[in-house]
Amino acid sequence: MGWTANDIPDQTGRTAVVTGANSGIGYCVARELARHGEHVVLACRSERRGQAAVERLVREVPSARAAYRHLDLADLATVRAFAGDFPGERLDLLVNNAGVMAVPYARTVDGFETQFGVNHLGHFALTGLLLPLLLATPGARVVSVSSGLHAIANIDPGDLNSERRYGRWMAYGRSKTANLLFVHELAGRLRAAGSDVIAAAAHPGYADTNLQKGFVRLGNLVAQSPRAGALPTLYAATAAGVRGDAFLGPRFLAFGGAPGLSWRAPWTRNDVAAERLWAASEQLTGVRYEALD
User: Fold this and answer.
1) Of residues 27, 68, 166, 172, which has the active-site annotation?
2) Domains of the chain
3) What Gene3D superfamilies has UniProt attached to this entry (predicted)?
4) What pTM was estimated for this model as a whole?
């Protein structure tokens, strides 16, 4: 049958941050973590939707410990505020889940192309700012949600913000490739620093979520539920034996089924490209991972 949410180990005493947790896969991840005892922070852009998600989660899991905190990945000032005001002295899990998909060309508050800015740079900054807490927490993990569609486009180091040429699907693919290059470089730096923090990536396959708005849906013949789509992320976040730089996804033609190791484009393991993207991301966001230098 394979791994299911019932196989999640007891998470009592642990704290997790899940970005974009007000709906879809992010909500399902937060709910299952809370169901197994984790204190979950739902980091969302909309206060109304975030608070409503917390209320729904507590109705569905009466024992849940969950809270909403404002985070807009398209505005680095809110990313800094989120990290700067984060309560407590530990963070066991950061799930970089929030994202936008195939949107028309636009720019974030800080002037970045929206998909690159939200899907990659916002999470790069958030992870770096929360890194001291992660490093101080034994067995902590960072899980970044990428997509099988990373394979449609490699990043262009000379045009990270797609200023010369913009295609909404190409830009989405580039941002998802950036997620995997980020995890590749982060995992390597953590390993070199002797840290036991695990950085891994996951993708949901094809799941019927709000992210698919504007996309031609394949319906119930192919699309799986958000709950099923959340399993690879939950596996990366909680299962024993997950290794740094792993990429987890559904086993059935990358669309559905139990989670396992997933194919990834060879350019997502390019050490030179990963290091260059890291340096550019530090420069663009102003966030340095000093503990891993």
Assistant:
1) 172
2) 11-288 (3.40.50.720)
3) NAD(P)-binding Rossmann-like Domain
4) 0.94
